[in-house]
Each structure stands twice: as C-alpha cells, then as structure tokens.
Amino acid sequence: MAIADEAFAPQRRSKAQRDLLAALAIHSVLIAGALLMIYPLVWLFVSSLKTDTEIFSNASFWPSQIQFQNYIRGWQGAAVSFGTFFRNSLVVSTAAVIGNVFACSLVAFAFARIDFRFKPFWFALMMGTIMLPHHATLIPQYILFHKLGWVNTFMPLIAPKLLAVDAFFVFLMIQFIRGIPREIDEAALIDGASTFMIYRMIIFPLMRPALIATAIFTFVWTYEDFLTPLVYLSDIGLYTVPQGLRLMMSTTGQSSWGPLLAMSLLSLVPLLIVFLFFQKRLIDGIATTGLKG
Q1: Which of 1, 82, 132, 105 is nearest to 264 (CA)?
Q2: pLDDT at residue number 30
Q3: How far apart are CA 55 and CA 63, in angstroms?
Q4: What angle do CA 67, 84, 275 make, to 5 degrees?
Q5: Residue 280 to residue 287: CA distance in whole angstroms
Q6: 16-23 contacts: CB < 8 A, separation 24 or more?
Q7: What pLDDT is recorded for position 24?
Q8: Residue 222 burial by Cβ neighbours in a 10 Å radius (0-12, 13-18, 19+)
Q9: Cα-based distances in Å from 69 to 45, 49, 250
Q10: Which of 40, 54, 163, 248 is most deeply buried (CB count within 10 A of its CB)?
C-alpha cells in the first residue's frame, strides 16, 4: 500500500500544481476585469476633485490641488439647488415603481390564471408592444397629455406606469406565476376566496422575487431616463437629475467640468444604495423569473 502511494505521489503533486496554476490564471483574469470595470468610476471620483484644466491635462490619479469646492459649486450651480433634482427624480422613480409593481402584477395574474375571450390575441398584442420603439409613440402620447393639461407636470412620467404599459415586466411576472402550482388557487376557491382575494392574499406575496426585480429595474430605468422628462418638463423646478446634469453642459464648450463630474458622481449614490441593499434579492429575482440566460 505504501509502495502504491509513493508511485502515485508525483501524479498527485502534478495535478495539484495544475489546479493551482489554473486558479491563479482565473483569478488574474477576474482581477483584471474588475479593475477594468471600476476604472471609469475611479477616474470620475478623482476628476471631480481636480480643476477644469487639470482634468484633461493631468492623467495622474492624484490631483495637484484637491478641489472640494467642485461639489459646492455643482450643488448650487443652477437656479435651484441640485437637491431639487434629486427630490424630483426620487418622487418620479418611486411612483413609477409602485405603479409598475401593482399594475403589471394584476395584468400578469389575469393572463396567467384567468380564462377570458380572445386571451391569446390580447397576449400576442401585448407582446408586440415590446418591439414598438418608444419614439414611435412619443408624438401621439404628447398630443394626448397636452390635451389633458399634463404637460410640465409629473403625470406623463407616472400615469403610464399605472396602466401596465411595460409589457416586459408583465411577461416576466407571467412566467413566475406559471411556476406557482394551481392547486393553491383551487384550495383557496374551495375555502370561498374570490379571484381578487387569490391574487391579493396568495399570488402577490408569493411573487416577491419577481416584484423586487421589477421594482429595481423600474427604479433604475426611470431614474436614468433623460428623454421623457426632456419632452414633458420645461420648468427647471421640475427637472430630474439627468436634466440637472445637462444644465451644466455648455454648447459653446465652456462647461464647468469639475462641478459636472462631482454631481455625476453624486447622482450614482441612489443607484449604488439600491443595488447594495437589494443585490441578493435582485439575483434571486433574475434567477427565478427566467431572465438568466
């Protein structure tokens, strides 16, 4: 037995060395990829502490003179405080999240659990809207909202979310609901529950991973949206963060790059907080709703 162990010992050492080299190679690639991904964020942070001229003339990661006043100038650089833009973005994004979560879950429940006339046709029609570019509906929507007197208010940004217009999230929730056993619904019906009670008390709580994924994606996409607020909002007091950043850019090339980069960095904070707090739940939601390839 001891002779056999001695005979196989070189092979075991060779395999251990190959595993070690493979692990080193994989970790080296991962570290290089991580550094590559984080480089723009590091550059943004360092540049937000430089003067306007030094940003593009000094490639060093250490500014010759730290310019904390870039944050003060950026915060107070417009006719209103940059905090107003943060407040407006959070109001619109939060309302969009609430609207999308409840409206899309209701529509998804109907498609997944209720039989009604022409259901395949309505489902195909809804899925077809995914391929419809947002720009194709922009002018008709603007005319409609203008007649309703909603232009230069938050209503054009929020009201569509209450009508389940995001077919992608409806489809995502349908896939999740189809994975919930129908026997649960049937047991609830035997106990006297109505269709809406089944949705509210059984299906909705069980949809938590899909709801969280929908909420996070809706928040991020609404918070980062530049085009829709640009079309409907003209009062600077109603501007969102992307519009506030646009105010700092000059068409004549005289932009205040330091304050602009400082506010750009601050604008990422809400997104980082949302991601850090809901990272695990977001991954669970993606894994359980079929979004993962």
Answers
A1: 82
A2: 94
A3: 9
A4: 75
A5: 11
A6: none
A7: 93
A8: buried
A9: 14, 8, 20
A10: 248
Q: Report CA torsion sign: 278, 279, 285, 288.
A: negative
Which H, E and C letters describe the chain, residue by residue?
Answer: CHHHHHHHHHHHHHHHHHHHHHHHHHHHHHHHHHHHHHHHHHHHHHHCCCCHHHHHHCCCCCCCCCCCHHHHHHHCCCCCCHHHHHHHHHHHHHHHHHHHHHHHHHHHHHHHHCCCCCHHHHHHHHHHHHHCCHHHHHHHHHHHHHHCCCCCCCHHHHHHHHHCCCHHHHHHHHHHHHCCCHHHHHHHHHCCCCHHHHHHHHHHHHCHHHHHHHHHHHHHHHHHCCHHHHHHCCCHHHCCHHHHHHHCCCCCCCCCHHHHHHHHHHHCHHHHHHHHHHHHHHHHHHHHCCCCC
Mean pLDDT, the chain cut into blocks of 10 residues (293 residues total): 65 81 93 92 89 81 83 85 93 95 94 91 90 86 94 94 90 90 90 91 90 91 93 93 86 75 92 83 66 50
Q: Report yes or no: 94 and 86 within 8 Å, Cβ to Cβ.
A: no
Confidence (pLDDT) at 293: 46
Among candidate residues 102, 103, 91, the one with its CA nearest the CA of residue 229: 91
Which residue bears the tokens 């992307």?
242
Say which amino acid occupies 217.
Answer: F
Q: Please say whether the beta carbons of 265 and 248 come within 8 A.
A: no
Contact 109, 177 (CB under 8 A): yes
Tokens of 220: 């991020």
Rounded Cα distance, 222 and 214, in Å: 12
Contact 73, 81 (CB under 8 A): no
